[in-house]
Amino acid sequence: MALPKYLNWLAFSVAALCAALLAVRVATSISLAEPLHVQTSGAEYESLYGVWRRTQGQPVHIDRYQPPYVAVMYNWLFYQAYGTFTKAALAAFALAEAWLPTIARLLTLIGVAAGTAVAYAGFARAAGSDTPGGHILALAFAVAAIAGPLIGFWAVTVRPDVWAMTFEIAGALLFLYLLPKRRSAALAAVAAAAYLAWAMKQSNVSLLVAVGLFLMVRRAWRELAAMVVAMALAFAMTFAAGSPQYVKNVLFVGYPLDYSFDRGLRNIANFAIKSAPGLALLLGAVIARGRSRRVWAEIVADDAALFAGLGAAVSGGLALLTCFQVGGAENYFFTFAFFAVLAGFALMPRAAHGGWTGPAAIVVSAGWLVLGAAVTAVLAGAVGVTDLREQHRQNLATKRCVDPLPRPIFVNNPFMALPWLTPAGEHFILSYVYDKERRLGRAFGGGGLGGYVGRGHFRTIVLGGDRVPERLDGASLAGYRTADVRCPGLTILQRR
């Protein structure tokens, strides 16, 4: 059975809705007229502060147990790439530091565009040239998977997830293109892409593991050994070149990880809706392949099908293991979303062997209808978030109110404590796990924030809400009084 024409039109229409939703969200997160102060993902302030330190020539991987108690957890290439890019752009256009988030978000958006283009090439190749209309369907899947609602505001957030995913997609594409005729070049390309993905975000190892398993199935022991040695040397040289603190941060030494069953189920459900076409394509391919009695032998004999299937299994398994972390989100599924589509196309029988079946086409169509309904609901304002400008207005109002206050100052909002929002000689940007580690009794230099408060180090303390607590981080606030300053939604304390 040939690819149904209605499926192409349905997929193209829903992909256009996905692109429209992304455009709406980008418009409220990035402006070339003024720097927008919005937070587009959880704990984005940690990444922004690390990038800012790189632009200032300061050490990035610092100890979160020492002032300013910020966690810098991602790998070296993220801070190096974003710091270099933003510093060059700010200097070239003579922009103030307040533009740093805008410039950095543009770099992430470039990663989305690159990832979409590369994913399209990979999907088109996996779909095969004998599939009429396959290129249109491949483009629709690329837009939905890499620029659709699963990515959401992560398309403009200052974090390494998008570029780490894009490097893994590029490595997968190079592997598919080079493997048939230039096997050594294919493995070298995978090694390079896998290292870049890991150097962006150290948990992005799906491509590397998938290729390793592929070589094991093929019993290519020499090539597997060469890959293992090459990657081990690359990792070892990176750790040797980095500081001891860099190694601790990248390996999450002592970092408290909590898991939540409810959080994991919510992430899985959200992913299933936002990636319904990809999951449906994979299921449809299984349905179409199910007619063959030699399905496993056929998959193992097909390099593309075997590699894509292993990639989906590995990335899906890693996503399931990590998505139950407290504070986790659907970003753990980014690479799996790509491999699910790639595997679906690679596993779908070619036209010469029956091609698409009626049930497979119906399943895939249902997936597109689910995504179309979800995106339409978001665009209509029934669910989800499309506009962050109110957040920007509130942050500007807070900045205007806090700017005249005497320093040293502590702002009990880590995003507002960023250097361009609250200029000061020191910036206490408490890590996402600071409160938890304080409860665990971890030792913090200077006694932690509470030590600074108890010594009366801060002349001004800015708290959210209108209630003054008796203590802050365990320290008494008796040495502070409520200031005669009115800031909406804030309480201002000044040292007596």
Characterization of the model:
There is one protein chain. Helix content is 58%, strand content 4%. The chain has 496 residues and is mainly α. It has two domains: 5-35 and 96-379, no CATH class; 389-495, no CATH class. It has a four-stranded mixed sheet, with no helix packed on it. Strands 3-4 form a two-stranded antiparallel ribbon. A hairpin with a 2-residue loop joins strand 3 (471-472) and strand 4. The chain starts with a helix and ends with a strand. The model has no long low-confidence stretch (mean pLDDT 93).
How is this fold's topology laid out?
Layout: H1 5-27, H2 44-55, H3 76-92, H4 100-127, H5 134-147, H6 161-178, H7 183-200, H8 206-217, H9 221-241, H10 244-250, H11 261-274, H12 276-289, H13 295-301, H14 303-322, H15 334-347, H16 358-379, H17 389-402, E1 409-411, H18 434-439, H19 448-454, E2 460-464, E3 471-472, E4 475-476, E5 480-482, E6 490-495
Parallel strand pairs: 1-2
Antiparallel strand pairs: 2-6, 3-4, 5-6
Helix pairs in contact: 1-5, 1-16, 2-3, 3-4, 4-5, 4-6, 4-15, 5-15, 6-7, 6-15, 7-8, 7-9, 8-14, 12-15, 12-16, 14-15
